[in-house]
UniProtKB/TrEMBL annotation, chain A:
Recorded topology in the membrane: Multi-pass membrane protein
Example of a GO biological process term: aerobic electron transport chain
Cellular location(s): Cell membrane
Pfam family, one: Cyt_bd_oxida_I
Protein name: Cytochrome ubiquinol oxidase subunit I
Region described as Disordered: 502-536
Molecular function via GO: electron transfer activity; heme binding; metal ion binding; oxidoreductase activity, acting on diphenols and related substances as donors, oxygen as acceptor
One Gene Ontology term, aspect cellular component: plasma membrane
Annotated family: Belongs to the cytochrome ubiquinol oxidase subunit 1 family.
Residues passing through the membrane, by range: 12-33, 53-71, 91-115, 127-150, 178-199, 239-260, 371-393, 405-426, 463-489
Organism in which the protein naturally occurs: Schumannella soli
Automatic annotation (TrEMBL), chain B:
Gene name in the database record: cydB
Family: Belongs to the cytochrome ubiquinol oxidase subunit 2 family.
This protein's name: Cytochrome d ubiquinol oxidase subunit II
Subcellular location: Cell membrane
Organism encoding this protein: Schumannella soli
PANTHER family: CYTOCHROME BD-I UBIQUINOL OXIDASE SUBUNIT 2, CYTOCHROME BD2 SUBUNIT II
Amino acid sequence: MDPLDIARWQFGITTVYHFLMVPMTLGLGPVVAIMQTKWVRTGDVRWLRMTKFWGKIYLINFIMGVATGIVQEFQFGMAWSEYSRFVGDVFGAPLAMEALLAFFFESTFLGLWIFGWSRLPKRIHLATLWIAVAGSIVSAYFIIVANSWMQHPVGVELIDGRPVMTDVWAVLTNNTALAAYSHALCGAAGVAGGLLLGISWYHLWRRRQDGIDTVDARGRVVVGEARELPGRDHADHSVWIRSLRIGAAVAIIGFGGVAITGDIQGKLMFEQQPMKMAAAEAACENGTSFSVLTIGDLGAKDCDELTNLIEIPGLLSFLAHGDFDTQITGVNSLISEYQQKYGTHLPDKAIYGERAGEAIEYVPLMPVTYWGFRIMIGFGGLAAFAAVVALWLTRKGTVPRSKWIMRLAVLGILAPFGANAAGWVFTEMGRQPFVVAPNPDGVDGVFMFTAAAVSPGVSAGELLFSVITLTALYAVLLVVEVSILVRYIRGGVASAMPELAHAGGADDDGDGPDGPDDGAHPRTAKQDDGVLSFAY
Amino acid sequence: MDVLPTLWFVVIAVLWTGYLLLEGFDLGVGMHMLVSARGDKERRLMLNTIGPVWDGNEVWLLTAGGATFAAFPLWYASLFSGLYIPLVIVLVALIFRAVAIEYRGKHHSLRWGRAWDVALGLGSFVAAFGVGAMLAITTTGLPIDANGDRVGGAFTWLSWQAVVGGLAVVGFCLAHAAAFLGLKTEGEMSTRMRRFFRRATVPLLIPIVVWVVAVQLADGNPFSWGLVVVAAAGALVGVLGSRRGSDGIGFLGMAIFLVAGVAAIFTAVYPVVLPSSLDPADSLTVANASSGDYTLGVMTVVAAFGVPLVLASQGWTYWVFRRRLAVHHIPDAHPVVAAVRR
């Protein structure tokens, strides 16, 4: 097997996997922080319950993001040493900045938050969460800056055949990065919104199913109570209906933002990486039409076997330029443009290994770009639509009793994840055959073919060992994480607030308990002076 | 002398020192959970001494990696690709450890807890060993060619130096964590760990002393030898301080030992960052492996801004959670049950 292909599969698998956890952390963090802020401001115990429950879900997921993130930072050097040598002067800096200016604060202050419930004054404890959340959001920025430099290299000069950074400000304010960053944050909001909506729907449905909540003649909710079930009191209902509405709102705002930022990003990409966008459209010839459905062999090399079944004239021009008649250059014209600029064959250099002298395939895998682009938009649109429907269906304070709608709501959690993953696969695979795509207005020679980027000293066997090990481990951990999430979700608020489970009923003192070992806990020895406000 | 590359060599030395100093006791605590703890409550007690801080401590490793990439891309590329297999194993170990810390208490079952304890203990052991082997190889060299690529197959890194380095960090972590647990716990646990520290520290530190002295014999200079003396004095003060009943001095002694020991290694090997065992002309040095001055200048500003904030916030965390823990502080496990009427 070819080391290059294995290394690419490994990067793809580990990155898509890592990015299952990342948008959840990015999206859920601010939501939990706002919930806690509301609690600190109002003293309303329902906000505390929401903070505790969603905070628990946040943490169960957070650790997987941390654990899989280390792999990301290390594998540039491990599997892509030539890439690291070529780009290190400019690409390493945002990664180091991420660690120094963001990840340290994220991890340190999250530890303070988790263990600080009764050790810290309320407001300071709240501040620790905000700092941790800010850390994760800044962290995402630096990572996207690094990635965007691969999409659109700026701020460098070519010295001795390597890009050397000359303008860090240009790197940090790369328009590709700003567009991609806002796009990713909105996408993360979509993930968080879907999660809140789906899980809250389940609990409202559960309450109806268990006969706790009923509806009156006009369909309005009559909230009930089940003393024997931990946490299933009146306040519990508000926790879920509020969470559901927050979730729907966050999803709608998120996906609205995704559309706007995606449009900006798309327009940039038509200029910066025209081949990627042409391949996203399977647009072989120059034209103005957007393809709704194209059939034929998308993988065929000559691009001639494609038939556009349904297309909307003018729409592609509108997406790229904002008018209806600008001709968009198609794949076939772009191939010759690229060949003129960047050559027809890989140079005869050692760095290309066995691939030296091979013909360069400038068209990315079209089935991936074409369908990746559509899955991204499709899932995103679907989730936004579902959020609007959900708001309508729950306008009278609870959910319908239908089990099937509940299942759809829970299944809907997956759609934003799918949209995020498809978006990344599209933009990374669409950049091929380049690992660093050339900037049409940038410095000549600042680009790199993926074929040259892999570590020359690392054998296929080593790469196979790591890709199999990591994939197997990740698969097992996904099962573990999901099973723990399901357990805690089914437990409801009481799973994150043991005092609800053991104090035998509601806790409506308005002040709120501070952790598993506060005085109300009947089974523990007297927790002298709250040394531990939380314990593993 | 190249000022900025030298400064960044120092920064990376500081980052590795910070990592070993802080994560050293995290990894050691993970191992002690398997060897020194009696019963579930004691294991949980140990885990909770590092609970609020371990994740922040691990960031020192990521920062060391990221800073190496930014400041010395050629060092980063050659070292990480050359040590492909051991780094995969270290990554797997770190993943197991992180997930185990968070998930071991998430299911109310003894078997579940035990399984994650093994993942945590072994993960800590393997990570410590792997990091030690990697650092030792950084000082003794890899067979790299003129391009910086390893030649000779996937296991050429496997040498007696790598094994000594691995044992060195494992031994240090066990001793360091014993000092830490003596300081951070009270009651029987504290007494036991104190006894472990007094008795086992000297033998546990033998591999790290072998490594430090071997590096000094090969590349030492008067300054680095001076640091070796400081390190030895630190260990001595630590053990004697502990014998005289001060856990604080015990821990401080270990900290001095580590800081001076790592400094002795880095000052001895300077300016070489990764020796080539094939041809000294192919060795990577501070001068030929670094980024340009502009990048290093930018990173210097970032570090000057970030590092004090990091130190302050981590220092504050240790202050907030300064209290000693005992078994009776550990609450009973909280079983999570579905809120469903049957």
